[in-house]
């Protein structure tokens, strides 16, 4: 290695030396400043003699050397010791190898810096760095600087200023492989992102565009579809083929994935595909004209006079018209078809139909008949001469004993001497070929085309260059040159015939005409024409055909083909021929071998589905102007834009089911009609219905309370029905996937926050969200349905499984959640409700069958839920309003459904719907239900039927003179209507409609009960309504009285409906039945009351109340007169205060009783006035009892306290008034507040407390009887105390003792009387038929005021004494007459007093002396 290194060093030094020499730097007087030298030369002192001063300079060397030498040079320079002396005047201080440039892979230069050197930053920017930039600059650039600059020492390079990074936009193409089910979720997720979306400080997503989705198609390939606003370029549509309708300049779907990785592009950036210039197209048009024979020469001459080509318009030109064939009747009644000049019949037609002209050519110009295949004369130049028959040879056939059919075309050894130039094809059988001409058909190579029979249709376009269709068998054709033939008879070979198998094919055809029994008669035209068509199309030398006949009651004709085995293609050709032949005479149906295409086969409820029909085979000649008729379960599908869409796509008929329901599962049929040709295709499988996803998420949005900074755990449940799956996520992540997900959400810190959770079906848009509002503090309400909440807060609760909707609750003061709204409906009921708005004749049978099944199977859930009953009533209303006929099967399904709604279990639900606390639409539910059933009975098409279901009986029949029938042994209907003609009657009898219809009459009285079956009757005499009809109802409860014959009036009470007796009256009541006579028809029943119709009671009541009120007025007058005298004694004063308040309370109560009776009798709706009267009657009757209680408590207090002081008079008055009026007002207000919202405060229009629905009467009876019982206890205690204390301390106590005795005596009398009175009141409720109890109650109840006057006031000696004194004082002021002194109004009392009370009264002019002698 030493020698190469030395050589390299010497070379470098020589280069340096000669470079300096050439620049004359070695001259003594020269001064040199290199462009890159930084050192300067200076003289310290000027002198005449120049002194050589050493000068430093830099020398830049640019060497071009092989790349392989570069490492050697680098090593050599590193091995030199510096300074290195070249000569006395030249010394090399240092050599620095800075830069190496060499070619790179692109053909340019790459310049790399040596160690401790680098490029300035401007060079890195201009030429681009080719190495990783780890410092302030770069060590390698892609190019050599044009200014000759080289790498510089790193220490002398200033760091490049750090540029502010500019945002750089770039597109990122993502190719994802995901399950198809995830696609909608991905699409929705991308659409929900707000852009721009920041990933980190240096990366921001401006937009994400989902352009292309590729997924497998039915053929196993890929189908790539563009998203909205994207499309494929036109070249991709051409290469891969469009799989969508091309309505714009390009397509949105192609059958494949482009191999170049290209994706859909924005529509705005796609150039429209160039429109190709249409090329002229030649086609042949075959016309079949039926004209009079006399016109034929004129037609021929007219055609010959036309000059061709003949232009019709800019796009259509007639090149030539050739008149080929004329067919006209001959003398035998058939047809004779003659060819025009230069045209002739093929030889096979001459053989089959027979020539009617001399055959002077290889074929004939006239045949006896018109070919059934529609073929016409052909140009003579295109007809091949018929083959010359091969001479027959003598053949001996040995027959065997086998029953076989001799095969034709037996091969025999034939020796034939052929003349030169004669081409002979041995044993070649030329078969006539029937070819249907199609446009642009490719000719098979080396095939000689036989004469072509063309089936002609009006306006059918035939392309030129027409050749044989696929599946057409063309036999080899023998072309024979007519030459003399020499035949040599050879020895005969005996051939044994092989057995041939005979096959039987049974086929059929369908005529679309009305059936007639005569079709099977051989003389019938239909039979003759059908048999002719069969014979024409299928009879061959090898087979025979026979029409078996038409099936019974059907236009399906059966025929049999016997003979050699036929292929499926041959059989299909025969069927097609028969179809085309018969279609010229009758409408005929051709059944497709394939079935309708259903897409998708599994359909989600209420989603879209399609049924595709066709295209019809071309050989049926339906053309393109066919019309489509669709059927479902053999019923035509009528147009309904809400349900169906009919379209034609690519010669296929498409039926689109816009909203698929379970009733759409069945047999579909399509008929494509063109003239009398009908192509029919049926479905061979059914759709499969998949339920819509039903998401259940618990809990729904609610508050979560936490306390003391403690963590709280909330369990969330997210589930969906099979076969779906759901994903549960919050705002940041996915929490779980599956069919049912349970997730425990932990709230680590108790602070006010909100957390939202989403439960969404994977691959679909359906979702539910729950927002949990975290709050601090203790909740006011808490339960499992609505969770926790504060007072007045609303919350939502989930429904039960298999239900849709939600529940709403409010937190109340009692700490309980009150459910204020429940919209939970059974999922199948909700789906039926949606479908009921879109019913038609096809879906109605299946719909009603499903409705009855759901209602019966879910009876318990239906009858207990107002929401479910509402939904089913709406369904029945929609059915009733759908103008479709109802037969017996449909009616039975309706009755089964309606019957469930009338069961006893539904009574409570109907009561909640019928009361006034709900909205108007709900309170009309019962009327809507009954009205729907009435409307449905009007549309029953059966003339006579009888349907018996568990709860409803339906009968319909006709009669002529009169009608008398019993229904379900509960209702008898008699009609005796004069008139002529046939009458009909429809009767629907309900076993339990009383559970549905409220027993309110036109006066809004609910004191009645429905006491018989409800019966709905509709009948007529022609179009004249029946005006006289009699009903006999068997009574359900014979204890009820006061029967009313009523009908349901739908217009009462703002269309809520009620019972009305207008036009109906009872005519007979006997043996537990009531007979009514009515002059109109609707729904009828019997209303009866539990109250006895007691006229004596009414008389006693009004007389007694009058006496009672008069007695009370007298009582108050007496109290006013003696009031000053009785105030001196506290006990007496308090007793009289009680008597006055008792009298006032009872007097006011009696006044309100009379007002209430007047309100009850007044016409119209007086509910508010009646409620007010009831309130005051209730309050003042209670006040009477409570003042009696206050009097009893005074007696007890004075007895127990031994008459010595105690409470003051003021205190006892306060206690008395608190008890006397405080207790009654509390009870009365609570009663009306509890019952008024449900309208059960009063007994209908009868102004008294309700004793049936709400039992508000208890609010009076219970306090009254309790006070009576308390009185009895107090009397026992007082009597016991008073018997033990007979001695009286002084006259004052004796006076009070007398007052107490009066109180005790009063209570002892009034308590049993009042107790007996209201005990009898309870008896009237327990035994409403007992008239004696009613009379006794009326007597004692109406005379309460009289009892108070007598036993509470007049039996008091002190009172009588004061009255006597007042009467005497009044009497002393009278004037004297000759007749004597006149007495005052109280004189009669004075006389009575003398004998009983020991009062002795004497009087004179000066004074009045009175003494008291108590007995």
Which secondary structure elements does this structure contain, and how are they paired or packed?
Blueprint: H1 2-22, H2 70-79, E1 84-87, E2 90-92, E3 99-103, E4 109-113, E5 117-118, H3 121-127, E6 140-141, E7 152-153, H4 183-192, E8 197-200, E9 203-205, E10 212-216, E11 222-226, E12 230-231, H5 234-240, E13 253-254, E14 265-266, E15 284-285, H6 296-305, E16 310-313, E17 316-318, E18 325-329, E19 335-339, E20 343-344, H7 347-353, E21 366-367, E22 378-379, E23 397-398, E24 416-417, E25 461-462, E26 486-487, E27 495-496, E28 503-511, H8 525-538, E29 543-550, E30 556-563, H9 568-583, E31 588-591, E32 597-599, E33 602-604, E34 609-613, E35 627-632, E36 635-636, E37 644-649, E38 652-657, E39 668-674, E40 677-682, E41 688-690, E42 695-698, E43 702-706, E44 712-720, E45 726-729, E46 734-738, E47 740-747, E48 753-761, E49 767-776, E50 781-783, E51 787-789, E52 794-798, E53 803-804, E54 806-811, E55 817-822, E56 825-826, H10 827-836, H11 844-857, H12 859-863, H13 866-881, H14 888-901, H15 907-914, H16 920-923, H17 925-938, E57 945-948, E58 952-959, E59 963-967, E60 971-975, E61 983-990, E62 1009-1010, E63 1014-1021, ...
Parallel strand pairs: 23-27, 31-40, 33-41, 43-49
Antiparallel strand pairs: 1-2, 3-4, 4-6, 5-7, 8-9, 10-11, 11-13, 12-14, 15-25, 16-17, 18-19, 19-21, 20-22, 24-26, 28-30, 28-31, 29-30, 32-34, 34-38, 35-36, 35-39, 37-38, 39-40, 42-44, 44-47, 45-46, 45-48, 48-49, 50-51, 52-54, 53-56, 54-55, 57-58, 58-61, 59-60, 60-64, 61-63, 62-69, 63-69, 64-68, ...
Helix pairs in contact: 1-2, 8-9, 10-11, 10-13, 11-14, 13-17, 19-20, 19-25, 19-26, 19-27, 20-21, 20-22, 20-24, 20-26, 21-22, 21-23, 21-24, 23-24, 24-25, 24-26, 27-28
């Amino acid at each position: 290695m030493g020698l190469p290194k030395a050589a390299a060093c010497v070379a470098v030094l020589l280069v340096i030396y000669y470079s300096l020499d050439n620049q004359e730097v070695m001259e003594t007087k020269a001064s040199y400043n290199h462009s890159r030298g930084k050192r300067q030369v200076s003289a310290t002192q000027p002198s005449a003699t120049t002194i050589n001063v050493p000068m430093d300079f830099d020398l830049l060397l640019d060497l071009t050397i092989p790349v392989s030498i570069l490492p050697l040079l680098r090593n050599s320079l590193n091995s030199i010791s510096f300074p290195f002396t070249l000569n006395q005047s030249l010394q090399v201080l240092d050599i620095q190898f800075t830069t190496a440039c060499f070619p790179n892979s692109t053909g340019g230069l790459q310049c790399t810096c040596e160690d401790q050197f680098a490029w300035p930053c401007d060079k890195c920017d201009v030429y681009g760095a080719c190495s990783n930039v780890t410092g302030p600059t770069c060590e390698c650039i892609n190019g050599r600087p044009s200014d000759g600059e080289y790498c510089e020492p790193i220490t002398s390079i200033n760091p490049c200023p750090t540029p502010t990074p500019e945002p750089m936009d770039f597109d990122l193409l993502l190719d994802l492989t995901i399950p198809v089910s995830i696609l909608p979720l991905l699409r929705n997720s991308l659409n929900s992102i707000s852009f721009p979306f920041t990933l980190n400080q240096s990366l921001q997503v401006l937009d994400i565009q989902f352009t292309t989705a590729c997924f497998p198609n039915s053929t196993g390939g890929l189908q790539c579809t563009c998203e909205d606003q994207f499309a494929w370029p036109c070249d991709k549509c051409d290469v891969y083929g469009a799989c969508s309708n091309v309505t714009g300049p390009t397509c949105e779907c192609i059958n494949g994935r482009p191999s170049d990785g290209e994706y859909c592009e924005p529509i705005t950036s796609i150039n429209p595909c160039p429109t190709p210039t249409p090329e002229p197209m030649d086609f042949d048009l075959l016309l079949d004209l039926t004209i009079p024979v006399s016109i034929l020469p004129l037609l021929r001459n007219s055609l010959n006079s036309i000059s061709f080509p003949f232009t019709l318009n800019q796009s259509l030109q007639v090149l030539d018209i050739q008149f080929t064939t004329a067919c006209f009747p001959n003398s035998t009644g058939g047809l004779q078809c003659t060819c025009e000049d230069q045209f002739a019949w093929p030889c096979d037609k001459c053989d089959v139909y027979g020539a009617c002209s001399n055959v002077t050519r290889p074929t004939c110009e006239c045949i006896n008949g018109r070919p059934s295949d529609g073929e016409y004369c052909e140009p003579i130049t295109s007809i091949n001469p018929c083959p010359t028959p091969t001479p027959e040879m003598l053949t001996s056939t040995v027959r065997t004993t086998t029953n076989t059919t001799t095969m034709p075309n037996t091969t025999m050894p034939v020796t034939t001497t052929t003349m030169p130039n004669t081409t002979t094809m041995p044993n070649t059988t030329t078969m006539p070929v029937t070819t249907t001409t199609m446009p642009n058909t490719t000719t098979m190579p080396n095939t000689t085309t036989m004469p072509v029979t063309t089936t002609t249709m009006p306006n059918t376009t035939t392309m030129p260059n027409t050749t044989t269709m696929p599946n057409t068998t063309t036999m080899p054709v023998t072309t024979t040159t007519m030459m003399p033939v020499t035949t040599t008879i050879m020895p005969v070979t005996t051939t044994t015939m092989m057995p041939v198998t005979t096959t039987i094919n049974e086929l059929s055809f369908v005529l679309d005409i009305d059936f007639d029994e005569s079709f099977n008669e051989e003389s019938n035209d239909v039979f003759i024409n059908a048999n002719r068509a069969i014979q024409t199309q299928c009879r061959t030398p090898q087979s025979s055909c026979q029409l078996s006949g038409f099936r019974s009651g059907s236009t399906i004709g059966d025929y049999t083909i016997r003979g050699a085995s036929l292929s499926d293609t041959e059989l299909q050709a025969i069927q097609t021929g028969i179809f085309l032949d018969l279609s010229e005479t009758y409408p005929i149906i051709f059944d497709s071998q394939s079935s309708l295409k259903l897409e998708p086969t599994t359909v989600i409820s209420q989603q879209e589905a399609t049924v595709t029909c066709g295209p019809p085979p071309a050989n049926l000649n339906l053309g393109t102007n066919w019309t489509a008729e669709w059927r479902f379960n053999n019923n035509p599908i009528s147009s309904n834009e809400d349900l169906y869409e009919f379209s034609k796509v690519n010669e296929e008929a498409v039926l689109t089911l816009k909203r698929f329901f379970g009733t759409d599962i069945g047999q579909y049929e399509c008929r494509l009609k063109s003239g009398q040709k009908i192509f029919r295709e049926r479905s061979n499988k059914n759709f499969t219905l998949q339920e819509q996803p039903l998401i259940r998420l618990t809990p729904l949005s609610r508050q979560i309370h936490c306390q003391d900074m403690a963590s709280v755990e909330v369990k969330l449940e997210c589930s969906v029905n099979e076969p779906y799956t759901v994903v549960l996520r919050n705002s940041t992540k996915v929490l779980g996937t599956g069919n049912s997900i349970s997730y425990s959400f932990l709230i680590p810190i108790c602070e006010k926050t909100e957390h939202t959770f989403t439960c969404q079906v994977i691959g679909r848009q359906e979702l539910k969200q729950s927002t949990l509002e975290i709050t601090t503090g203790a909740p006011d309400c808490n339960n499992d349905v609505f969770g926790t909440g504060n007072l007045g807060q609303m919350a939502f609760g989930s429904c039960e499984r298999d239900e849709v909707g939600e529940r709403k609750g409010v937190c109340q003061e009692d700490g309980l959640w009150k459910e204020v709204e429940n919209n939970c409906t059974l999922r199948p009921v909700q789906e039926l409700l949606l479908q009921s708005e879109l019913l038609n004749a096809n879906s109605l049978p299946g719909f009603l069958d499903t409705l009855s099944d759901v209602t019966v199977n879910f009876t318990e859930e239906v009858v207990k839920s107002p929401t479910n009953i509402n939904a089913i009533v709406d369904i029945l209303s929609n059915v009733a309003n759908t103008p479709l006929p109802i037969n017996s099967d449909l009616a039975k399904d309706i009755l089964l459904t309606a019957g469930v709604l009338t069961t006893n279990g539904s009574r409570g639900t109907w009561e909640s719907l019928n009361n006034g606390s709900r909205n108007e639409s709900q309170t009309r539910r019962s009327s809507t239900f009954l009205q729907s059933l009435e409307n449905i009975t009007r549309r029953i098409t059966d003339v006579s039927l009888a349907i018996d279901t568990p709860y409803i009986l339906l009968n319909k029949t006709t009669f002529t003179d009169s009608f008398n029938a019993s229904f379900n042994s509960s209702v008898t209907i008699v009609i005796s209507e004069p008139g002529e003609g046939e009458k009909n009657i429809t009767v629907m009898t309900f076993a339990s409609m009383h559970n549905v219809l409220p027993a309110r009459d036109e006066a809004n009285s609910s004191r009645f009960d429905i006491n018989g079956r409800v019966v709905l009757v509709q009948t007529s005499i022609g179009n004249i309504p029946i005006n006289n009809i009699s009903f006999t109802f068997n009574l359900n409860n014979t204890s009820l009285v006061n029967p009313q014959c009523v009908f349901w009036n739908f217009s009462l009470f703002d269309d809520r409906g009620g019972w009305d007796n207008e036009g109906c009256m009872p005519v007979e009541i006997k043996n537990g039945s009531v007979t009514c006579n009515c002059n109109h028809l609707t729904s009828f029943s019997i209303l009866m009351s539990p109250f006895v119709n007691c006229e004596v009671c009414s008389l006693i009541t009004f007389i007694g109340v009058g006496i009672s009120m008069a007695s009370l007025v007298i009582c108050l007058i007496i109290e006013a007169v003696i009031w000053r005298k009785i105030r001196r004694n506290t006990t007496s004063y308090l007793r009289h205060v009680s008597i006055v308040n008792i009298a006032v309370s009872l007097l006011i109560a009696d006044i309100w009783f009379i007002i209430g009776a007047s309100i009850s009798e007044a016409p119209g709706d007086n509910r508010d006035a009646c409620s007010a009267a009831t309130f005051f009657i209730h309050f003042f009757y209670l006040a009477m009892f409570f003042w009696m209680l206050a009097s009893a408590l005074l007696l007890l207090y004075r007895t127990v306290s031994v008459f010595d002081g105690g409470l003051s008079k003021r205190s006892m008055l306060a206690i008395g008034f608190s008890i006397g009026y405080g207790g009654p007002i509390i009870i009365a207000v609570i009663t009306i507040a509890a019952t008024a919202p449900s309208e059960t405060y009063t007994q209908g229009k009868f102004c008294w407390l309700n004793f049936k629905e709400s039992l508000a009467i208890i609010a009076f009876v219970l306090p009254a009887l309790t006070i009576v019982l308390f009185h009895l206890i107090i009397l026992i205690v007082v009597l016991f105390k008073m018997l033990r204390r007979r001695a009286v301390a002084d006259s004052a106590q004796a006076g009070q003792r007398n007052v107490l005795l009066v109180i005790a005596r009063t209570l002892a009398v009034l308590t049993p009387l009042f107790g007996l009175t209201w005990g009898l009141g309870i008896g009237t409720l327990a035994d409403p038929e007992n008239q004696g109890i009613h009379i006794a109650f009326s007597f004692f109840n109406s005379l309460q005021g009289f009892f108070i006057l007598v036993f509470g006031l007049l039996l008091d000696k002190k009172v009588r004494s004061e009255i006597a004194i007042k009467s005497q004082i009044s009497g002393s002021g009278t004037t004297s007459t000759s007749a004597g002194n006149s007495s005052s109004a109280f004189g009669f009392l004075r006389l009575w007093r003398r004998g009983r009370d020991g009062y002795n009264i004497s009087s004179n002019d000066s004074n009045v002396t009175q003494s008291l002698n108590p007995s």
